[in-house]
Amino acid sequence: MKVAIIQSNYLPWKGYFDVIHDVDCFVFYDDVQYTARDWRNRNQIKTPHGTMWLSVPVAAGSRDRRIDEVTISGTDWAEAHWASLRHSYARAPHFKHYEAFLEHVYRERNWEYLSDLNRYLIERIARDFLGISTRFVLASDLEAQGQKQDRLLDVLQKLGATAYLSGPAARAYIDSAGFEASGIALEYKDYGGYPEYPQVFPPFRHDVSILDLLFQVGPDSAEYIWGWRQGFEKTARVPQAKPALEGRVP
């Protein structure tokens, strides 16, 4: 069984979902310290004036808390994010398909914890809009022991993992010998080669939120994340069911 362990991000880029697709079990690494000015609470979208950050405000003192303990500050951010998305993408070919889902997220839900917001968005997008069947797990539910790499290995062992998929940046600090000793194959994700798609505002950027891709190509989004590796004509379009407004996570 192949596993990935990553901290939750707000509206992640397509590479994040590529990792989810590649594994049997995806672990939200939610019981480690929150990192400020990172992808946990923000991401970028395209606008007529270039890229723009959408940042979820978090409570003071969040740097000293675990990710699953970080609370969101205020409610005005939700309406502002929804307005920015509508202003930038209302004329995108597939915006209407996702409009009800996002309006539910930003106008009908009250989010207390950043982790809950991130998980809800990631799981719903992965399952309902990209057709991914990967199992999702919270690291906090596993009560992992140890520090740094030992903690990762403990999570993997508790899940019965036979392989671990890591991001490429981790090559700088991962000790492969530890994985070998534990009998877990170590793999690194390659984010290279993603094809460009018709992006509404040039110049093209790969490193923006997954919403940009969904709004532009809709049911063909999976082709631009992993389907291209087998050829566009060999991968079926992902069914785009009408989004349900009741989520799978609180």
Q: What count of helical segments does DSSP give?
A: 7
H and E string: EHEEEHHHEHEHEH
Radius of gyration: 18 Å
* Average pLDDT reading: 91
Strand order across the largest sheet = 5-2-1-6-7
- Helicity range: 25-40%
Total beta-strand segments: 7
| Overall 3D form | globular
Estimated share of beta-strand residues: 5-15%
From the N-terminal CA to the C-terminal CA, the straight-line distance is: 27 Å
Secondary structure category? alpha/beta
The largest sheet, given as strand count, sense and whether it forms a barrel, is:
5 strands, parallel
The low-confidence parts are 242-250
- Give the oligomer, counting copies of the same chain as homo and different chains as hetero: single chain
Overview of this protein structure:
The protein has about 250 residues and is an alpha/beta fold. The chain has helices spanning about 15-20, 75-90, 95-110, 115-130, 150-160, 175-180, 210-215, and strands spanning about 1-5, 25-30, 40-45, 50-55, 135-140, 165, 185-190. The strands form two sheets. Strands 5-2-1-6-7 form a five-stranded parallel sheet, sandwiched between helices. Helix 2 packs antiparallel against helix 3 (about 95-110). The longest helix has 16 residues, at about 115-130. Residues about 240-250 have low confidence and may be disordered.
Summarize this structure as a short list of keywords or feature phrases:
alpha/beta, two-stranded antiparallel ribbon, globular, 13% strand, 250 residues, 7 helices, 32% helix, five-stranded parallel sheet, 7 strands
